[in-house]
Amino acid sequence: MTARIGVVTFPGSLDDRDALRAVELMGGEAVPLWHADTDLKGVEGVILPGGFSYGDYLRCGAIARFAPVMEEIRGFAARGGPVLGICNGFQILCESGLLPGALIRNRSLRFVCRNVHLRVETTQTPVTADVLPGEVLEMPIKHGEGQFVASEADLDRLEEDARVVFRYSGPDGTVDDAHNPNGALRGIAGIRNEAGNVVGLMPHPEHAVDPDVGPTGGQALFASLLSSVMAEAGR
Amino acid sequence: MRFAVEVLVTLKPGLADPQGKAVEGALPALGWTNVSGVRVGKHVRLEVEAGSESEARTQVEEMSGRLLSNPVIEDSRILEVRGE
C-alpha cells in the first residue's frame, strides 16, 4: 500500500490538478478533497495547492482559512500529520496562524513567473527528510504576493529554531539579493512550524516533477513526503 | 439598532509597503516632488445590527482581528460608529 495524499480544492484553486498528478507520478495515491469536506477521507498527508482561493479578495488566503475543511486540517496538523502549503496554500497557512509571518505584494509590484533555485536549509520536515542540507532545487514561482515578512523577533526565532526550510538562491546555492525574486525577508522561500510537520513555500514543486516540461526540483519533495508518510505508518 | 461603522486598516509601521512606494515614485512625474512617507491602507465600511453603540464597536473590533485585518502585518482601528 502506498501513501494516501489529499489535495484540497478551494473555489479558485488552480494547481490542485498538478498536485494530484505529481503525487501519482511519484508513486503515491492522490485523493481529491473539497473545501466543504468535513472529513479527510483517511489521508496521511495534505497538500494545500496554489491558485486564488475565493478570488483572493481582501487578502490572499484570508477567506479560505475559514473553509470547513480547514478545521479538519487544523486537527490533523495538531496530531502531527504532514501538511504542505504551496503558494496560495502557504498564504492560507499563514492566515490560519499555522505558520508565522505573512506574504505581501512583491517588492517589484509585478507578478513574477519564472524558474528559481532554492537552497534546502533543513531536513527536519516530511518534504525535505530525504534531501541533503544545502542541496539546490530548481522549480518555478508564479505569484504577485510572495514577499515573506515577519517581525524581526519572529525572523530571529525562525532562524534559531532552524525553521527556515528554503531560501531563494543561485544555482550554486548563493543566497543574495540578486537571487531574491520578490524581496522576501532574509531570502525566505519556505518555512515550517515548530513540530516540523507543517511546511509552506511559495515556489511550485508540483510543476517540477516531469522532465518533459521543465526542471525536476519538485521530485525530491514529493519523494520525501511519500517516504516520510510510509515510514511513519511503518510500511 | 443599525450602526454604520468605518474601519481603517493600515500596514504596520516599518513593514515594506510596495504600493505606497509605487505611489510615492509616481508623484514626482506629476510635479509633486515634495512628498515622502506614502503608505497605502484599506478603508472598510459596514453596517451592523446591534443593541448599542458599544456592542457594535466590540463586534467590529472582533471582526477586525479575525478577518478585516491580518494582525501579523496590519493595524486596524475604528474611525467612526454612527447610529442610523
Give the SSE map.
The complex is a heterodimer of chains A (235) and B (84).
Chain A: E1 4-9, H1 16-25, E2 29-34, E3 45-48, H2 68-78, E4 83-86, H3 88-95, E5 102-104, E6 112-120, E7 136-143, E8 147-149, H4 152-160, E9 164-169, E10 188-192, E11 198-201, H5 219-232
Parallel strand pairs in A: 1-2, 1-3, 3-4, 4-11
Antiparallel strand pairs in A: 5-8, 6-7, 6-9, 9-10, 10-11
Chain B: E1 2-11, H1 18-26, E2 42-49, H2 53-68, E3 74-83
Antiparallel strand pairs in B: 1-2, 1-3
What CATH architecture label of chain A applies?
3-Layer(aba) Sandwich
Name of the CATH first level of chain B? Alpha Beta
Q: Which homologous superfamily in CATH is the superfamily of chain A?
A: Class I glutamine amidotransferase (GATase) domain
Q: Share of helix among residues of chain A?
A: 10-25%
Major sheet description of chain A: 9 strands, mixed
User: Most extensive interface, residues per chain?
Assistant: A-B, 19 and 12 residues
| Domains of chain B, number | 1
Work out the radius of gyration of chain A: 16 Å
The end-to-end distance of chain A, rounded to whole angstroms, is 8 Å
Stated plainly, the CATH topology of chain A is called: Rossmann fold
Shape of chain A: globular
Name of the CATH class of chain A: Alpha Beta
Mean pLDDT figure of chain B: 95
Oligomeric status: heterodimer
What share of the residues of chain A does DSSP label as strand, in percent?
A: 15-25%
Give the CATH H-level superfamily of chain B: Phosphoribosylformylglycinamidine synthase subunit PurS
Structural class of chain A: alpha/beta
Q: What gross morphology of chain B would you assign?
A: elongated
Per the CATH scheme, the topology name of chain B is: Mth169, Chain: A
The average pLDDT of chain A is 96
